[in-house]
Amino acid sequence: METVKVNGFGFKYSLGDKPALKDISFTVNEGEFIVVCGPSGCGKSTLLRSLKPQLRPFGETEGNIEFCGKNINDIPDADSAAQIGFVMQSPDAQIVTDKVWHELAFGLENLGVPTHIIRSRVAEMANYFGIHTWFRKKTAELSGGQKQLLNLASVMLMQPKLLILDEPSSQLDPIASREFLENVRKINLELGTTIIITEHNLEDVYGYADKVLLMEHGEAIKYLPPQEMAQYLAENERDGMYKALPTPARMYGCVLKGECPLSIVEGRRWFSKQMEGKALPCPSLTEEKRPEERAVDVSEVWFQYEKGAEPVLRDISFSLRRGEICSILGGNGAGKTTTLSVISQKNKFNMGKITVAGKDLKKYKGTELFDHNLAVLPQNPQSLFVFETLRQDLEEVLKIRKFKNEEIAERVASVSKMLGLSELLERHPYDLSGGEMQKAALAKILLLEPKILLLDEPTKGMDALSKENLGGILRGLRDSGVSVLMVTHDIEFCAKYSDHCMLFFDGYIVSEGSPKKFFADNSFYTTAASRMTRHLVPNIITCEEGEQLCKSLC
């Protein structure tokens, strides 16, 4: 039986000058797991929201969508709310109550379900997802992974036939992300719920798919099983989507030998078979010397949000060197974002010392710290935008710095071209996709020409090609003497572009080193390439290194 049938569907935003979706057609059968992928701004989120009428943006539609054999627009709101579940990108965006137990019951209460049935379903679902251990906690006290799991459980309490997830793991650390996606897979296998999910990071979810829908420029390009899609992308690379494939599929794609692996265990078997009888290298682990000059020096810093509360930062000490990209990794709540907040004077630390550009942080007055010195890309980029168009927001940065109109136009055009934003300058910033907004926020920050750049999750919502472009920009800034301190959950990006890495846990720095040493020593906070190849070839940490090895030996 068909759960979803999309036939010639198109969509145009009310103020848009061209369609966001064009002639989309595909079918999802009952119990299938569908992964939707494509570059930022290709229409993935618009398509997913169109599958739930209550979330569909305001605009013009054509064609039709059927749900369980009925036109989706004819389904009563109560039935649609219960039968079509939706999990959003931000864990906080969906939570509406202050207690976990109340959040679980909220949807059923709104549908008028009897109390005894609500209690029974809540108890069952809390146990199913392991929520019973934090059942009576305040929702504000939960980690990002717990919040997203709560959102998932709250939706599943409605017993939906279709579960739609829009970048659900983009704000989670790697371990929490993997656990969340395993729960989604569990729902699909054990409950038979039909899944449609979009993710930019395909490393963990791609192998779960029955079919993959590839989108570009608002169109459905291909709809294939995952192995066939990997081969298609390897043979016909389209706008960098091949680079978004999971590492095992990419390493297969560079030689096209054997059967395409989708998971790490399949990748290890495939790699072992390809390496049989080959003289295998042993890459060295020599540490590169870091630059001497310190841009930021953090010494024995402690921080707590409230008096008497548990410290969030516990005696942390590290340095960011001049002309270096340094990355901070760790689970949600480990103290990563808080570290950026104390360096940027958003929060005042309790003990210790911080120097920025050789000056004690406490001696910076007013906006002196940010005057052609330090700039911050926050975790929520929306907070940077205040005007009706992106162009106005970018121009305002330069007007404040007293640039002339002609130079303002040149600089805005230059940074927009560099970040692929030229066609978006007349759009309202809030109408941009998640990845586009990240790039727009970075453009605004780069116009300040900072010497020290603090980035909080800069690759969030970005497609593979945009990440590659960003990595090249960061390297260019580094080579010009700019220092970059980056908080990230994106292990693959960190391994490829960082000069130094640190792992935070419970407010402490528990390990640090060059990417080679850092990731080669880890079992979980490491790259897919390392997990796939380390049993035969140690110290490979990026997919590109694995691809190069396969090309040279196969």
Structural class: alpha/beta
**DSSP helical segment count:** 18
Q: Give start-end ranges of low-pLDDT stretches.
A: none
Which percent band covers the strand fraction?
A: 15-25%
Shape: globular
**Oligomeric composition of the shown chains:** single chain
- Largest β-sheet summary: 6 strands, mixed
Helical amount among residues, as a percent range? 25-40%
Q: Total strand count, please?
A: 20
Mean pLDDT metric: 90
* CA-based gyration radius: 24 Å
Spatial arrangement of strands, main beta sheet:
6-7-8-3-9-10
**Terminus-to-terminus distance:** 44 Å
Summary keywords:
554 residues; globular; 6-stranded mixed beta sheet; alpha/beta; 22% strand
Topology:
Blueprint: E1 2-13, E2 21-29, E3 33-37, H1 44-50, E4 59-67, E5 70-71, H2 77-83, E6 84-87, H3 100-110, H4 115-128, H5 144-156, E7 162-166, H6 174-191, E8 194-198, E9 211-216, E10 219-224, H7 226-235, H8 247-253, H9 264-274, E11 294-303, E12 313-321, E13 325-330, H10 336-343, E14 351-356, E15 359-360, E16 374-377, H11 390-400, H12 405-418, H13 434-446, E17 452-456, H14 464-479, E18 483-487, H15 491-497, E19 500-505, E20 508-513, H16 515-521, H17 528-533, H18 543-553
Parallel strand pairs: 3-8, 3-9, 6-7, 7-8, 13-18, 13-19, 16-17, 17-18
Antiparallel strand pairs: 1-2, 1-4, 4-5, 9-10, 11-12, 11-14, 14-15, 19-20
